[in-house]
Amino acid sequence: MSSHYRTETDFSIKGLEKAESEVKSARKVTQRIRKNPGENKLDTVALTKEFEKFMDDDVNTAKAKQTLMDFISKANSELENGIRLDEQVAEKIEKLFQILGVNLGSRVSDAEAEMADTLLELRADSRREADYETADMIRERLQDIGFEVEDLENQSFWVR
Q1: What is the per-residue pLDDT across 77-98, written as a single tens digit (0 to 9) for each?
Q2: Is the same domain home to 85 and 115?
Q3: Domain for residue 2, yes or no?
Q4: Which of 24, 84, 94, 138 has the most CB atoms around its CB within 10 Å?
């Protein structure tokens, strides 16, 4: 997906790590939007037009993917600045990645999600009580089983 289909693809560990990082970044942004949705909308119409332009240009997935990654970077900046985005932004990102054959949907069962949510609530309680040792231990245990904990100013969430 990082190069045009008519060019030779160079598979490497570095390339795979970059792809993994990009998918993780996309998944993280969509999960953050869904955990705390708002009414602000980024221009998903322009995103779709740009994406389609590159796909119509001899299936140029590399440029289509880069368009998506630029949009994700913009969405992440908005989130970092405390701007809550509409869930339609997450839906559009997921839909366009699906066109590229990448499913950003949850890789977590309902039971796992419930367990992670419960542990995050316990961690939040520990942090409110200034029991940072317990809060750190909960974070480490979640990381040990594959959940990355993201702390925002007024809430925490997990990504997997």
Answers
A1: 998 888 889 999 999 999 999 9
A2: no
A3: no
A4: 138
* Cβ neighbours of 43 (radius 10 Å): 12
The Cα–Cα gap between 112 and 96 comes to 27
Alpha helices by DSSP H, 36-86: 44-56, 61-80
Q: Are residues 77 and 141 in the same domain?
A: no
Q: Which residues, other chains included, contact 40 with Cβ-Cβ below 8 Å and sequence gap of 6+?
A: 78, 83, 84, 85, 86
pTM, to two decimals: 0.73
Beta-bridge partners for 151: 156
State the Cα–Cα distance between residues 59 and 48, nearest whole angstrom.
Answer: 14
Confidence of residue 6 (pLDDT cuts 50, 70, 90): low
Same domain, 91 and 122: no
For residues 77 and 121, state if they share a domain: no
Res. 59: pLDDT tops 90: no
Counted domains in the chain: 2
Three-state DSSP at 148 gives: strand
Closest CA to 85 of 30, 27, 16: 30
CA 130 to chain centre: 30
Alpha carbon distance 53, 36 (integer Å): 31
Residue 8 has pLDDT above 70, yes or no: no
